[in-house]
Amino acid sequence: MAERKARAEKTVLSRQEIATRRKALTEKKRKAGGDDEGPHRRALLGLFLLAGSVLSLISVATFDVKDRKGPGFENAVGPIGHLIAESLRGLLGVWAYLLPLSGFYAAMVIFVGNRERRRWPQLVCFVLLTLSGAVLAQLFIGNQPGQAHPPGGFIGASLGGVMVGLFSTVGTVILVTAVCAAALIVGTQYTFIKLCALAWTGACALGRRVQESALVWWAHQKESWQERRERLAQEREEEAAFFAELESEEAELDEAERLVAEAEAAEAEAMAEAAVRLARQEEKERAATAKKAAREKKALEAPPARPALPAGPRPAPGADPVWAS
Q: Among the four 43, 75, 83, 300, which has the fewest Cβ within 10 Å?
């Protein structure tokens, strides 16, 4: 048993050595075959591809419909730029920006990419992404008045029309979206999934932060509402006490007014009695004065009094009077 294990390990080691030696031998053959100019050619190819991508991007970004009639050109790259933008936008519509961006990516791959990695799956995914993106742009934006080109260009309009006729609009959107997502996943070497996972993680973290902030805000609002309710209750109690104090003061004022009114009434009654008494006294005085004046007047108007006869003995009853003698 141990012998078999040792033999298997020896076989594995020998295979690793063979692969390493074969790789080293291939590298020696490449160098011996005069492939020293390969990196230079790759650098030049990447440089021209990068320049063409920049020119295409600027041309598409500065496209103006007025350049069709002239005079002059508003495009930043001139008439050639207008021709490039007209061709790309006429072919892909708003999805024409994908070609310059793909050129940037291809230039970076040429500069720093691994030469031994197979790139044909990325090329297939690029074609699928271009076609599906043009169809989605055509379906979602649609033809609008005043547009220089259809939103999906000639490819999006023609291919989208055929697919809508076969799968309807909803089915076409679902199918093309699935193809676009698959092309992004495979074309970016699963970087798209990593970006989606990173975006999901960030969204979850943001959601937790938002939830925590919302809970803190809700707790703060509850405390504020509780404080507001307590403050309102205290204000109501103070208001009730204030109104009760006002009512007591009003009652006291009413009682004071009643006492003052009673005192004024008693004083008025006393003054009235005093006035009546004075009136009666004046009336009595006037009556007494009138009587006195009447007596004096009567006394003045009365005849003079006869002289008094001398006093003598009184005659006896039945006797003759004195004047008869």
A: 300
